[in-house]
Amino acid sequence: MCIRDRPQNPKTPIREGKICTGDSLCVGIFLKSYPFPYPILMVEKIPLEMKALVRSSDPAKVVEVAAVPVPKPDNGQVLIRVEACPINPSDEYFAAGVYGLQDKLILKPPIIPGFEGSGVVVGLGADVPAELMNQRVAFSGDPHGKEKWSGSWAQYVCADSKVCVPVGDLPFEETCGLFVNPVTVMGFLLEAKTRKSKGIVHTAAASSLGKMLVKMCLKEGVELINVVRRDAQGEELRKLGAKHVLNPCTCLLYTSPSPRDLSTSRMPSSACKKKKKKK
Q1: Considering Cα of 209, then 211, then 216, then 217, what sign does the dihedral take?
Q2: Higher model confidence: residue 189 or residue 269?
Q3: pTM score > 0.85 for this model?
Q4: How big is the CA angle at 181 (ends 84 and 246), to the nearest 5 degrees?
Q5: Is the four-CA dihedral 108, 112, 114, 116 of positive or negative sign?
């Protein structure tokens, strides 16, 4: 039914059904019955299949591109057209089948990795505010019961509407990582404060998470020792405000205002050097 052909009587509801699939300006689906005027809850034609990176049955491949059905949002979920998604270490472990989450879920193929991403809301499940339609959002992946996982490494994904964060006009590439790293950083700080620790030693300081941790520790007044593998990484962190940067490969601890030579300390100078093979 085309929106042009809707009943003129305001009291006559329109039931579920496709509308005007031949006109790109008004392609959509009515998901519920509404009085006049009739809100459209889907504003684009959703395909039956999508491309996704799925966990491969071949251990050597880890993941492979496959055509899979587009997921349907459950109660409280939204359907999102994915525009960008990061590759976190947790995603890699999940793809390899060794992430802890899978101990709690009995996942069945197709298993799509991806814990977070960003995109546009194109469909709503029941009990979801209509205002979310067409919103540009960052989202976190969501289990479909105990057997399916709706991951972000796909063209479409279902996510819990309550954890979708509107991002306005911010670039998708910059907002696709608003969950995994920020939550991890806040977990570090909460653990440090709970334990009343003097500080945090971070051994992946040059990562995106590490740079975020530098900023948050400065804000919260928590001492942070940043462990890097190259001096250039330490220089970048110091520009962000890092006070303590340790490079075990050169045995230099860069502290404000000057570096200290740790070659005579207990740390071995060969910490990052490969052991020579015996002939």
Answers
A1: positive
A2: 189
A3: no
A4: 125
A5: negative
